[in-house]
Design a protein that fits this description.
The structure is a homodimer. Chain A is of the alpha+beta class. The first copy, chain A, is built from 7 helices and 3 strands, in the order H-H-H-H-H-E-E-E-H-H. Chain A has a 3-stranded antiparallel sheet. In chain A, helix 1 crosses helix 2 and helix 5 packs across helix 6. Chain A is globular, with a radius of gyration of 17 Å. At the A-B interface, strand 1, strand 2 and strand 3 of A face strand 1, strand 2 and strand 3 of B.
Chain lengths: 163, 163
């Protein structure tokens, strides 16, 4: 029985780890989340488990109320998501990027990534209480899409980026 | 006795009102604060009284602790200050400006004003609990200085501002 369980676990881990391994963005996201782990709770956790909370199914989303404040853990996840994007852009363009997230108590707000005088990325946030993606694969795809678009913006406005 | 008091009051009001009247920035700031006055408390107040809380003497500042959270009223004042700057820049350049303030619980953070892809103004905030200026005159001067610098930035990077 014990042997069987171990085998199953290993298989699952291998499949999921490869997603994180394959995506520069997810690797960066894992680093961002681990950086917040002041008490070493995640120390022994696998990468995919560390970012498992970024996956929120449609069903689960519909059960999260958008009435109250945004949960501090969700706020931190949103910040980690945009920080990971900022670091990826930074590594590929050599421009130091800053991140700001501003959320109202109703879950509306902004996420801004900028470098010098250039807004590399600006996104309005809505129903932030429900922040999450249907799968790690979609999370990676969205992160990489935003990184790509940020890099293009830096290339388009080099003067403002240096300003 | 009554006559005397009235005279003094009138004189004070006249002197102080002229500061608000003379400054486009202060006029805008008054509008921003009045816009937050959902219950009409300030309806009968003079302009200089509406923004009186933006004046914090050095002595008073030293008495405000920077240990805890930033008071919501202070947070709102900081937001009004940068919104007034944004509106002044908007009126003179014709570019729609957005404002974001991001404050940590320790009173550190950022205030960002941007239009299109251009960061018109970015300031680090520090000891935000003590936000305020020594006098209305200095408040006006600082506001106008930031508006000037913002307009120059828009003129310097027109492509990014339209981007």
């Amino acid at each position: 029985m014990t042997t069987k369980t171990t085998t199953t676990e290993t298989t699952t881990t291998e499949t999921t780890t490869s997603i994180v391994e394959e995506s520069t963005f997810l690797k960066e996201l894992v680093l961002q989340v681990r950086a917040q782990d002041h008490y070493g709770v995640y120390r022994t956790w696998k990468d995919e488990l560390v970012i498992a909370n970024f996956v929120v199914s449609k069903e689960k989303k519909s059960k999260i109320s958008v009435e109250g404040d945004v949960d501090p853990a969700t706020q931190l996840r949103i910040l980690c998501f945009y920080r990971a994007i900022a670091v990826c852009i930074e590594k590929q363009t050599g421009k130091l990027c800053q991140v700001v997230t501003d959320l109202s108590h109703e879950g509306f707000g902004w996420a801004i990534v900028w470098t010098g005088r250039l807004v590399v990325l600006s996104r309005t946030l809505r129903d932030a209480q429900r922040f999450g993606y249907p799968s790690l694969k979609k999370l990676a795809a969205q992160g990489e899409r935003l990184v790509e678009s940020g890099i293009k913006t830096v290339e388009k406005f080099p003067d403002a980026a240096d300003g």
